[in-house]
Amino acid sequence: MQHIQYNDKFLSDFLSDGELESYAPHVAQAEKLLMSKSGPGNDFLGWLDLPKKTGKDTISAINDKAQEIRSKADLLICVGIGGSYLGTKAAIEFLSPAFEDMRKPRVVFAGHTINSDYLADLLELAKDKEVAVNVISKSGTTTEPGIAFRVIRQWMEKRYGREEAAKRIVATTDPDKGALRKLAKEEGYAAFEIPGDVGGRFSVLTPVGLFPIAVAGIDIGKLIAGAAEASDFCSGESIEKNMAGRYAAVRNILFRKGYTTEVMATFQPQLHFINEWWKQLAGESEGKDGTGIFPAGLDYTTDLHSLGQWLQEGLRNVFETFMVLKKTASTITVPKFDDDSDDLNYLASRSFEDINEKAFQGTMLAHLDGGVPSATLMLEDRSEATLGQLFYFFEKAVALSGYILRVNPFDQPGVEAYKKNMFALLGKAGFEKQAEALSGRAKGISI
Ligand code: PA5
Questions:
Q1: Whether the CB of 401 sits within 6 Å of ligand 1
Q2: Tens digit of each residue's pLDDT (9 = 90 or more) over 350-361
Q3: Which of 20, 46, 100, 446 is the 20 to 30 Å CA partner of 93?
């Protein structure tokens, strides 16, 4: 069953008759390039058939380890950044109860920021909990998770002793390379492998995401099955059949017309981190060589009381995709009060979802009237199958869109610039020349 539906029928004021159809050859060409594995970055296409290749054995091995961790820990600390963090966070926020205290075990994150207060609070939270750690880094050399893990490892060894700490730490990293693989071997940490041909932001359906998601109690078999289904309805050279291809076509037509920012607008808070994950996926894949659609995320109706003004009347360089959840698990209705002192009795006995739907309809129509090309992405429910389909749909769409934009969607040369500067300023060996060039300029920029 298809749990997600993309709909561009509201774009008639922005696309001329037949425009989408005449753009279809660009999608066909991108699809050909991707599926024949002959395009740029073709050594990072392992994610393409991953859902169909992930066998029961792999899922069982991950589930077994997750079960072991669930039986001995009520707090899992995941250490990672970028693609080694956002997919897990998105899945847990989408599929778990809203408040962290309601989640068992609780999964918290470290290494995605450089901040003593955050880490100190996390260790304070951990002190009366049974703790396990999943340190995730494909390269095994990323600074942010690297320094956070040093602190957490020291804390774990002090708390449990080195031997027991090692039993509570799971590493997810490259099969052979990197400092983390070496450390895992030396310390005897259980370790999962990130396939060499799957890049960070495309890795949520590898052990990077699957293991901590399974620890959170989510059915990873269903997640993978959902992704496998999406690989069917997101394939082929026809935009009538390939939903990811159709979405990629719409994005690029609008981009060429000057709509350079895509706002992914949600109406449910559980979708916030899916947006964060998508922003990384799209932004890091497309934003290079002086081109790329800027991915932005807004949470409605919260943001209708802030950036809604900008969307309605600001610069007309934005198009909007409304990512909306059809079904919620519970239904709360507005109570009736005889005094009706707040004049809200006209909404009595109507559900929050009914009211939210009217907010969605009202917003979309207002934005269309205000000159914002808008399409919808409907999600059936908050299930593993829906999420698996969504993950794959976005991965495929971004890969196609990157090829349409004529960039390599699978590299990220731009992220090296800040890293080189940071290493030079921190005094890392090998960066002496840059350090000399930067030190004077950096003096004026201090915290
Ligand atoms: O998409 C990517 O490759 C990056 O965003 C990485 O996921 C991020 O930089 C973290 O890298 P690593 O897993 O090597 O620590």
A1: no
A2: 999 999 999 999
A3: 46
